[in-house]
Structure formats: C-alpha cells, structure tokens
Write a structure and sequence with these properties.
This protein is mainly α. It has eight helices and no strands.
Amino acid sequence: MDRREEFEEIVKRETNGVFNLAYRLCGNYHQAKDITQETFLRAYQAFDRFEGRSKIFTYLYRITCNVWKNSLRRGKIQNFTSYSAGLNVMQIEDVPEAENVSPEESLRKDAKSRIVNECLSSLAPGDRAIIILRDMEGRPYEEIAGILNCRTGTVKSRLARARQKLSEKILPFREELNK
C-alpha cells in the first residue's frame, strides 16, 4: 500500500472522531466541517514527515486543535454556538427515542444543556479544549498531553483550573440546574 492509499484509509477511519472534536470545540456544524477538511489537508501535506512517534489520531487531534485556535484568532469562527454535549453528532440518528420522558423533563434537560454550553463557550479556547478532550471525549491524560504537546502533569493542572473556571461560571445558575 502506498502513502496515498494509507492516508485514504486513515481519513476513512478517523473522520468521525476529528469532526466530532471540531464540532465540540466550535459548536457549529459547517465550521466543524471546514475545520475537519483543513485538518486533513494539513495532515496530508505533512504526511511524509509523520514519524509515527504518536498515534495517528493524536496527531490529527493536535492539528484539529491548532486549526480551530487559528480560525478563532483570524476571526473565521465567530463564537461557540451550541451543541448537545452528550451526543456524537455523526451518530445522532442512532440514538434511540427516550421512552417515558415527559415534555417538561425534556425542556428542563434542554435548559440545563444550554446553560452548561453557554458557560463552556465563555471559557478561553485552551480551557474549553482540555475540558472537551477529558470530560466529554474521555481521553486519557497521556493522550491529551500528546494532543496539546505538553506534559501529563501540565494537563492535570490545566484541567483542574479549567474545571474551576467552569464551575465559577455555572455557580450563578445553580438554582436552575437543580430543578
């Protein structure tokens, strides 16, 4: 298998994961598609230099985070809009209908999700990224360290600070969240 075919296989295997990360970071379907496309373009352009010192998805996630941050800086991405934190966007059709959930309960869950999304969106990009990678994607500390190109201890301290900031932002909405 030549490098082009190898890269095509990687794209097939990793597209959903890259898109989901991009969507969780920016909260907009179309912007996430653009970030995903740019990620794979950059990865393809540098693929001959990929030495395999990290796993390919770690490499792609690092590029995704960098593309997202660069897009924020250049103003290509306005601001985080909203998303359903618990759903994998590419697999939304696979989620079964919730049984025995009243309309009131559904509205309460939507309101709670909106509050958390708004608080998350107000965090600095680095804080948002680390919370998404660890708390939403469930990535291990070592993997996040590879994605963010830092040490595991740094990941843990940044995550603790980011969680604290998120907690402070959510605090004023405590009553609404406890309903």
